[in-house]
Amino acid sequence: MPSLAGKVAIVTGASRGIGRAIATRLAKEGAKTVLCARTAGALDAAVSEIECDGGAATSVALDLRFPESPARLADFAACQFGGIDIVVNNAGATKRDAFLQLTDNDWLDGFALKFFGAVRLTRAAWPHLKASRGSVINISGAGGRTPGAEFAIGGSVNAAMQSFTKAMAELGIADGVQVNVINPGSIRTGRLQKRLEALAAENGSDLAAAERKMIAATKTTRIGEPEDIAALVAFIAGPEGRFLQGSMIDMDGGATKTL
Question: Strands, E, within 114-159: which ranges?
Fold first, then answer.
């Protein structure tokens, strides 16, 4: 029997990249999966792919930056499938730029989706998670532990996500809810592709050479794949990962050098 058979999972930022890979993997493990992002067409394509592979999924297009959207998502999932067992807070990309070029609106937007979207969805889903002894998995980022000048917003948001995870993990012990956070490093997404293209143009090289240069500069093993993160999410949410609580797992090929 699949490890997550009968479970209901919400995955945000699920129309592409890491979120889509997570939703696909959870569905393969037997979870009834609710995908959420802003683009309905991309969500429909992801759901169709899951269903073609024999999984059960549905989607709702919402902008989780709006305060009412996370509660709407939790209500939708509970109405569609009768409860909530797993919440994966993955949505949110932050602007990368020199600090003096970043505006107040850039900072507010960075926190609105990734941090406050996760806080609000966790709060809305918590009664269901408490009833099912469910699991929250936050997708943060390596920049939260190793900040950089060009990633001031992202690093700050990720650090806040990590702190939020630790706080909720303590509450989760009392309420029977598992809460953990994964810090991905460089993952092969559309956003990383643009960075590689810019690096290749800057050095007059091809993409393969740009990738090798990035790996060497960060002293890592390789660029990660979305499926790497998805496999870890499935393990944490499954029965074999249940002893993990308040864990902050760096899945970054060795990018984080600190203790």
Answer: 135-139
What amino acid occupies position 96? Answer: R
| 109, 139, 211, 220 from 63: Cα distances, Å | 12, 18, 33, 34
Quick: pLDDT tens for 62-76: 999 999 999 999 999
Question: What is the rounded distance in angstroms from the CA atom of residue 241 to the CA atom of residue 244?
Answer: 6
Backbone φ, ψ for residue 19 (5° rounding): -60, -40
Over residues 106-130, the pLDDT tens digits come to 999 999 999 999 999 999 999 999 9
Tokens coding 18: 């890491």
Tokens in use for 155?
């690093």
CATH entry, 8-187+226-248, from 1.10.486.10, 3.90.76.10, 3.40.50.720, 3.40.920.10: 3.40.50.720
Q: CB–CB of 26/233 below 8 Å?
A: yes
